[in-house]
Every structure is written in structure tokens, then in C-alpha cells.
Amino acid sequence: DAKTTQPTSMDCAEGRAANLPCNHSTISGNEYVYWYRQIHSQGPQYIIHGLKNNETNEMASLIITEDRKSSTLILPHATLRDTAVYYCIVRVETGANNLFFGTGTRLTVIP
Amino acid sequence: DGGITQSPKYLFRKEGQNVTLSCEQNLNHDAMYWYRQDPGQGLRLIYYSQIVNDFQKGDIAEGYSVSREKKESFPLTVTSAQKNPTAFYLCASSTYGAGNQPQHFGDGTRLSIL
What we know:
Distance between the termini of chain B: 35 Å
Oligomer: heterodimer
Strand content of chain B: over 45%
Radius of gyration of chain B: 13 Å
Strand content of chain A: 35-45%
Distance between the termini of chain A: 39 Å
Largest sheet of chain B: 7 strands, mixed
Strand order of the largest sheet of chain A: 1-9-8-3-4
Shape of chain A: globular
């Protein structure tokens, strides 16, 4: 199973872009990269996912390197409500499509 | 609104007691999942179901049981055999078979021992 490595914690000033890195050097060619976030005492919230092309939606952008061994989640204008734990996940290839959650990056947005 | 509803939000269990956590979804998803989260940790898979009347064990199924009698519902029973049940329990659902579709989560049930 492909695993991911993320920094334990990061800070970001309010209004600035938050760039969250993730390493997934053992990713397979047909595995997607997913990003979720979890605010304290709530369920994880899906943010974005991609295979090899960069992706953007209303919440964030996902930049995947050409060799697919790492990616970066970008929150373009961080707000205090973006303070959360962010999980980078490579989808495990099983019949259930279950996700392997590591310990994530705790992002703190500072006023 | 479409989504996943977990109840209750908080639950207390006495020694030797079985308790059941509810999970209902109106997203018309085929697959449903139960995860456990301990403080400061990631999620671990307990059970999952790809279709009605079928389910499989995840990584930490011992001491838990599930049923899937309806597409919308996937209740989890924490039995007395689970010796360390205090945790945050999360239910999720997704479209089955479409490998790149995300899972959607409920807001969880926090279980504690009295």
C-alpha cells in the first residue's frame, strides 16, 4: 500500500496562501491522491483529489509533480475557519475503496 | 439536503453492555464504512459494506458487529468483547465501483465508558 508523509504542523497568516506538502514516493500509476481535512470533533471533509493533472475547485488547488511522488494542496486565501488537520491520502486499491488515514498536518491559521 | 447522519453524538457504555451506533445516508451510495479514531491518531477501518446484506471486516473488526439490511443504513454494534471502546466513531459512504470517487463522512459519535 502506498503511504504518505506530511509535516506534523504548519502555521499560515490569515489571508495568505497555505501550501501543504505531501510525499507519496511509492504511489502506483493508477492510484489517486486525495485530500481531506478534519476540524476538531467533526467528521473529515473531502477537499479535492487528482491522478496526475493539477486540479482546482472552489475550496483549493492540487498540484501533483510530474513524477507523481509528491503533491501540494493550496488554500489560496486562508481564513481562521481553515484551521484543521489536513490528510493527504493515496487510495488503497481494494474492493471497498477504503482510505488509509495517517496523522496529517495540523494547519493553524493565525490572525 | 443529502448527507450522512450519525446518532447519537455522544454515547456512554457501561461495563459488559452492548451499544449500537446509527448511521443513515440519503446519498444513494452503495458502499458504507465504519472507522474508529483515537486521540491524535488517524482513522482505522472497522467494517465496510459494498452492497446490501454483505459486509467485510476491516483492520480492527474484533469486538464489533454490523448489519446492512437496507441500502441507507449501516449500524455498528460495539460489543462487550471490545475492551477499549472509548473513541470517536465515524461512518462514511461512497459510490461503489467508481474507483476515484471520494468518501463522504458523518459528524461522528463519541463513545465513552462509564
